[in-house]
Amino acid sequence: QVQFVESGGGMVQVGGSLRLSCGASGFTVSTYAMRWYRQAPGKEREFVAHISSTGGTTVYADSVKGRFTISRDNAKNTVWLQMNSLKPEDTAVYYCNTHPPKREYWGQGTQVPVSS
Questions:
Q1: What are residue 63's DSSP bridge partners?
Q2: pLDDT higher than 90, residue 116
Q3: Which positions ≥6 away from 42 have C-beta within 8 Å?
Q4: How far apart are CA 67 and CA 83, in angstroms?
Q5: Residues ≥6 apart with Cβ < 8 Å to 115
Q6: Could you give the 3-state DSSP secondary structure of residue 91?
Q7: How do residues 50-88 score in pLDDT, each as one tens digit?
Q8: What is the pLDDT of residue 17?
Q9: Percent of the chain at pLDDT above 90?
């Protein structure tokens, strides 16, 4: 069964850092591009970062470019999101999924509240 398990979130102060992890299972993870998405309170889910199946290509939303770094280890079926210089507007629940997303299998996400 397809499963995404996000972890690593928690309260952080403005300017702080967090590293989110995503464990994926139930499919051949190494053959899929992966993305991090986030959903802020009262807003639609939005794209944050993309990594190709091999890890050779990464793409970021303009709002996080230069502050966030996506990476993956296909041997561990894991994708990470290193978040630095966090801002209040980064407050959201963060999710991982494939690209294109397996829409019926969204995980619980991990909450990242950024306090000012």
A1: none
A2: no
A3: none
A4: 6
A5: 11, 12, 13, 14, 88
A6: coil
A7: 999 999 999 999 999 999 999 999 999 999 999 999 999
A8: 98
A9: 96
Please state, in angstroms and rounded to a whole number, the distance separating the CA atoms of residues 102 and 88.
29
Q: Which residue has the higher pLDDT, 97 or 101?
A: 97
Cβ distance 81 to 94 under 8 Å? yes
Q: What is the pLDDT of residues 3-57, one digit of tens each?
A: 999 999 999 999 999 999 999 999 999 999 999 999 999 999 999 999 999 999 9
pLDDT (tens digit per residue) in 50-59 = 999 999 999 9
**Six token digits for residue 16:** 């702080």
Q: Are strands 12-13 and 114-115 parallel, antiparallel or unpaired?
A: parallel
Tokens of 87: 């801002």
Tell me the β-bridge partners of 99: 33
DSSP 27: S
Using a 10 angstrom Cβ sphere, with 0-12 exposed, 13-18 middle and 19 or more buried, the burial of residue 18 is buried
Rama region for 75: left / alpha / beta (φ>0; ψ in -120 to 50; rest): alpha
